[in-house]
Write a structure and sequence with these properties.
The chain is mostly helical. It has a domain at 50-143 and 186-265: Zincin-like (2-Layer Sandwich), CATH 3.30.2010.10. Helices cover 52% and strands 4% of the residues. The protein contains 13 helices and three strands, in the order αααααβββαααααααα. It has helices at 2-17, 26-30, 32-38, 44-60, 70-79, 114-119, 122-137, 140-156, 170-182, 187-203, 210-222, 227-235, 240-253, and strands at residues 91-95, 102-104, 109-113. The longest helix has 17 residues, at 44-60.
Length: 306
């Protein structure tokens, strides 16, 4: 709340000094400062409703692959490996897009892009989803929505959140998405989400080095001619190599030995399966996966912000 209060003070200053901010009308502009402060009181249940409304907007702007598609079937198999997430009330879909990305929303929506599935094997995709769920579990997503709502509500002069779904306009939701995209998680939040992903992997019999490999994939792609896909994502996920090293050290400290090379050393292509994995000398785990045709489309959204 202290951080949000500081944001509220900044918004008040912004609104009193910048007449070009987007507002509904002049009277709304006059009340924008008060609106920003009142928006701080938005409740968790209202945040969840706001997330649901935003996901309707996001889904409508992206191509969602049907249940019969191989990408969706592969995601179903990956999500079926999560054994301890029933309380999150998740719904998950695949966006057809070359963007290397995934995110979890505050209403339990998980969206994974085909570009990410093409770049990573099953274990790595599992770890990335675990990272996004980490942001959800750690309340990072809730706080990101609250902060973004605060900023956008001030522009529109909205004094309080309305329970009426129709009261949130398409323009407002679009601006909310832009605000979410411009905000970045802190280094601490990213590290905590990585650690949650590691724990998910360990608890569910997935390669404990999967998050390490996934971060190496992002590092490899960002420096290997795919910067167009990853430039925005990497700009909000700093120190990726340091994060990878941290997860590797966690796995080593827990007594796990790395027996996999990861997809950063494999030529890009859809349908990667989990390679042979030994968990502390235990059984190997091999996965079967498939992918549909690679397509582009949809709007790239920053990891964990939507």
């Amino acid at each position: 709340m202290k951080k949000l209060a500081i944001i509220g003070a900044v918004v008040v200053m912004m609104m009193t000094s910048c007449a070009s901010m987007k507002v509904v009308d002049q009277s709304a502009a006059a009340n924008a400062g008060a609106a920003a402060l009142q928006a701080l009181t938005i409740s968790d249940s209202q945040i969840k409703q706001l997330c649901s409304q935003y996901m309707v907007e996001s889904d409508g702007q992206n191509t969602i692959l049907p249940a019969s598609n191989d990408y969706t079937k592969r995601l179903d198999r990956i999500m079926a490996r999560f054994k301890n997430i029933s309380d999150l009330d998740l719904n998950y879909k695949v966006y057809q897009s070359n963007t290397v990305n995934a995110f979890a929303s505050g209403d339990g929506s998980v969206r994974v892009y085909t570009g990410l599935m093409d770049a990573m094997n099953d274990d790595e995709v599992f770890a990335v989803i675990g990272h996004e769920l980490g942001h959800l579990i750690n309340k990072d997503v809730r706080d990101a929505y609250r902060a973004a709502y605060l900023m956008v509500a001030a522009r529109y002069g909205i004094a309080a959140y309305s329970q009426t779904a129709g009261a949130i306009s398409q323009g407002f939701l679009g601006d909310l998405g832009q605000q979410l995209a411009s905000n970045a998680y802190s280094r601490r939040q990213e590290t905590q989400a990585d650690e949650t992903a590691f724990q998910f992997c360990v608890q569910n019999g997935v390669d404990p080095y999967a998050m390490y490999h996934a971060l190496n994939v992002l590092t490899s792609l960002s420096g290997g001619g795919s910067q167009g896909k990853l430039a925005e994502l990497m700009s909000t996920h700093p120190d990726t190599q340091k994060r990878a090293t941290h997860i590797k050290q966690m796995a080593e400290a827990a007594g796990y030995k790395m027996t996999t090379s990861g997809s950063s050393n494999i030529s890009s292509g859809g349908g990667k399966t989990s390679s042979g994995i030994k968990l502390g000398g235990g059984k190997s785990d091999s996965g079967n996966s498939g992918s549909g045709s690679n397509g582009s489309g949809g709007k790239g959204l920053k990891i964990g912000k939507n």
